[in-house]
Amino acid sequence: MYNVIRVVHFAEAADASDRAEYIETVRIAVKELGALRQLVAPTLPGVINGGDALVHLHFPSAEVAARHTVELDAALRGPITVRVDGVGYPARPAQARLNEPRTLYRALLIRVDPSVAADAVERFERDLLKMPDYISSIVAWRLSRVTDSVGSTEWTHVWEQEFTDRAALMGQYLNHPVHWSVVDRWFDPECPESVVRDRVCHTFCTVDDIVVE
Fold first, then answer.
1. Of 26, 66, 93, 162, which has the highest C-beta tally within 10 A?
2. What CATH number does the domain containing 23 carry?
3. Closest by Cα among 112, 50, 111 to 83
4. Do the domain assignments include residue 212?
5. What are phi and psi of 103, to 5 degrees?
6. Residue span of the structural domain in which 39 resides
7. Interval 21-42: pLDDT, tens
8. Which of 174, 112, 156 is nearest to 183 (CA)?
9. Tens-place pLDDT, residues 40-92
10. Cβ contact 109:201 at 8 Å
11. Which of 166, 141, 176, 153 is nearest to 84 (CA)?
12. Would you state the pLDDT for residue 86?
């Protein structure tokens, strides 16, 4: 399986009707792309460099995704589009807690400095994957290495989660001790262990179906 994420940034002058029309137009367009699952939704307040619209498509293979990526990116261009960030990556099976509600999908696009030693990258990845052990409101999660990057930043990783609700992300997750005492050091440029470069893309939206699977 292969996933494609796009984060669309709108012009500040775009009004509510322009935004709603864009979302509906893209939803119609992506239905023709052969994706097994499709998500096209406005982002929620609180994103950081996270755009105004979030698109997530689940394809049966990288080859199928490649055949439709040009069509996807053409559909995302519009009069209110300023720029698009995005990634493509092999979709490993996600980990999940069974029978828990999932109402919010979150993706964090990250660029790890390519000069960082492989063992440091692996420690960074392990620390991210420890977070669900401590944060119960993370219902599903997956960390992937990026094989295709879109936008001005060469993204290397995508860290995906589904949460019980928005309050869980903005509260328990962001304020949890494991976040600021274990994970943040990899992102803080003043910390010697920092491996992340450039501003991250922290984006999320409401969902009514499974995205991380």
1. 162
2. 3.30.70.100
3. 50
4. no
5. -120, -10
6. 2-206
7. 999 999 999 999 989 999 999 9
8. 174
9. 999 999 999 999 999 999 999 999 999 999 999 999 999 999 999 999 999 88
10. yes
11. 153
12. 98
Residue with tokens 């262990």: 193
Q: What is the pLDDT of residue 19?
A: 98
E runs forming strands in the chain: 2-10, 37-42, 53-59, 81-90, 95-96, 104-112, 138-145, 148-150, 157-163, 196-206
3-state helix, strand, coil in the chain (%, to 5): 30, 35, 35
Task: Collapse the DSSP code of 195 into the 3-class scheme (helix H, G, I; strand E, B; otherwise coil) and give the result.
Answer: coil
Strand, helix or coil at 189? coil
| Residue of 50, 69, 67, 155 whose CA lies nearest to 41 | 50
Q: What is the domain count for the chain?
A: 1
Q: What is the pLDDT of residue 22?
A: 98
Q: Is the pTM of this model over 0.85?
A: yes
């439709």: which residue's tokens? 68
| 132-146: burial string, b at 16+ Cβ within 10 Å, e else | beebebbbbbbbbeb
88 part of a folded domain: yes
Per the CB < 8 A criterion, the answer to whether 146 and 156 are in contact is yes
What does the block give as tokens for 161?
């989660």
pLDDT band at 182; cut points 50, 70, 90: confident
Cα distance between residue 98 and residue 72, in whole Å: 32
